[in-house]
Amino acid sequence: MARKWAYLLSSSTYLPYSQQEVDQAMRELVDVVFDTATKEPFNADQVTGVGTRLVDMRCTGPTSMRRTIDVLGKALMTEQELYRLDDKRAERAIALLGVIASDYLEATRQFIFGQQEDIKEALVRAGAEAQRRMRATEARFDAVFTSSPSGVVLAALDGTISRVNPSLQTMLDREDFTGLTLFDLVDEDEAPFLKAACQDLADGWAERLHQQRKLIRPDGEAVRAGMSISVLRDDGTTASHLLVTVDDQTEMSLLQGQLSHQSLHDVLTGLPNRQYFSTRLESVLRQADPAVGATLYHLDLDAFSMITDGLGRAVGDRVLMNVAQRLKAVVAGENAMVARFDGDEFAIIVQNTDTTPDVISMITSINEELAEPVYFDGLGVAASASIGVVHKPPADADVTELLRTADMTLRRAKANGRRQWGLFDPAEDTRDRSWFSLAAQMPGALEMGDIKVVCRPLVQLMGNRTIGFEAQLRWDHETGDPETISHTLCLELAEQTGLVVPLRDTLLEDASTQVHWWNDEHGTSLPLAVSLTANQACDPDLVGAVLMRLSQTGLDTSLLRLGMPVSVLIADRGEAVDNFRMLAENGVVTEIHEFGSAAGDIECLEELPATSVRIAPRLVHRLRAGKSALIGRTLKDLIEVAKLAGATVVVDDIETADEMTWWRSAGVHFGMGRYFEPGPADLHDFGTV
């Protein structure tokens, strides 16, 4: 019925509304009429306002009222709920229609009266304006006024609107501004501020003002706009009107809002990003109850690259979104924020209360939530996480420093394997900071020549005679104690900084130069031993780098003893095995290091062209500990196997004469360690060997 009523009214006169808006309005009026008709006690005056609403919607055509009475009358007489009042049905219908008609007539009269007054007032103003201004000036003003892309309003000093241009009509979706003031156009909360500004202009306190205001369309939609208000003067001194230009800034405001949101949130997951999280973290630290404090969790998904590499980036993105939602679910009942930092890293800050779960319970909840597989195209995928925890940091903690400590704690947890977590420990943090400080200084130290190449003797145990040298690194750090940064520590630091391959090349070049000089100086042909790390051994450019530096320094390939860890030779890492074979083919003496430390090293010795083996350090240390005779027997058997394969046997870290004697009796050929003098040094500083 409401749609029929709306259709009949729309066809009787022009309505400045969409058909949807008219339909909605008629449904609301029908509800009012029929609610009143069926309500007890009956009061026909409750439909007062229906006629006014029709007039307000401009339903004032010559047949609008007749069609309204026709539609409502028939509907009221056939309404099922009114059949119970059979004797009063007609009476109620007539009463309701009478009130609606009376209200409609009064509203029409008021509407016509208002239009007449507005027209009269407009004519008076227009006449006064015409008398003050020259026709040419008025024509130019009209041209600018009408064609301006900005909305323009001409208003009296009290804010009453005199005239608007088409741009403003379009902007506010309003044709008629009759009887409105500037203050009627803005949000009711902002109207007093605009009124005060206009009063300042009228009183001469200012000539022009610019304000950001929220204008309201007839349908209630808001328009963000910039309003520039200036005073027009009749004779150059007397203020007469206000001229307002209005620029729609809604799209700009929306764009700024979107940009602001994007700058503070991760695009993929919608979670806050590091910047937003840092701000919230600072606030939580200040506001947290000192008794329970706050807890910071820094998470990194384990082996996430396996998901993206194995199932594709799209699945990886969906996993990240799922993880984000699950982490939010874990802390849903807490005053907490979940953020995504970079890649597969997330963070949670919880402002603890008396009911907040303890750290272990929270970690358990996170692990259980993430352990539940999520299915993509029938494939169940789950991602565990390693977690670094900083519990109850000080309220005045520096946010940047706090995030750093959380990251360091996470790194320590990941070093223990997957799905591990660690709690921040100040002592460990101090130690790690010292370690990373050294690592950060290493590139500069290498460039400045502070990292030097030194050599130590390789001794034949039978006869205690030096038969070669092993190259090592020594960092002469500013601490004044070079031994504190030994060869082993230099290599560990280089692994952290990506310098392990450049250091290898520096060591090869400098050591080859020193040994070549030594042999020329003393008329000897002593070899150079170099021990490679796993990453150095797997470098695809290893063979070329070795041969190039031997060629540059003049050291013969047969005088280089190059060792690789047995772990990379038996781990199916093809580059290391290929490098081992090619170096042997080019005349380099190849060694297997850490022999006896892994299953398969015997097989490795049998299949690869190894000339020598070096016993694993941990076996040397176990023998020194002397806890079991078994280790001694095992080592002797291992040495015998190596000798059966035709390999010479080398042992490092010999510290005493007794140790040297034991190894010599066990069949070891060569040894190194603190027992033998001199210690690591530049060969130019050695005495005669």
Automatic annotation (TrEMBL):
Record-linked PROSITE patterns: EAL, GGDEF
InterPro entries for this protein: Biofilm_reg_signaling, EAL_dom, EAL_sf, GGDEF_dom, Nucleotide_cyclase, PAS, PAS-like_dom_sf, Rev_trsase/Diguanyl_cyclase
Alphabetized Gene3D superfamilies for the sequence: 3.30.70.270, EAL domain (3.20.20.450), PAS domain (3.30.450.20)
Domain EAL: 435-689
SUPFAM superfamilies, per database record: EAL domain-like, Nucleotide cyclase, PYP-like sensor domain (PAS domain)
SMART domains: EAL, GGDEF, PAS
CDD domains per UniProt: EAL, GGDEF, PAS
Pfam families from the UniProt entry: EAL (PF00563), GGDEF (PF00990), PAS_9 (PF13426)
Location of the GGDEF domain: 292-426
Transmembrane regions: none
Residues annotated as signal peptide: none
Entry-linked PANTHER family: BIOFILM ARCHITECTURE MAINTENANCE PROTEIN MBAA (PTHR44757:SF2), DIGUANYLATE CYCLASE DGCP (PTHR44757)
Name of the protein this chain belongs to: Diguanylate cyclase
Species name: Kibdelosporangium phytohabitans
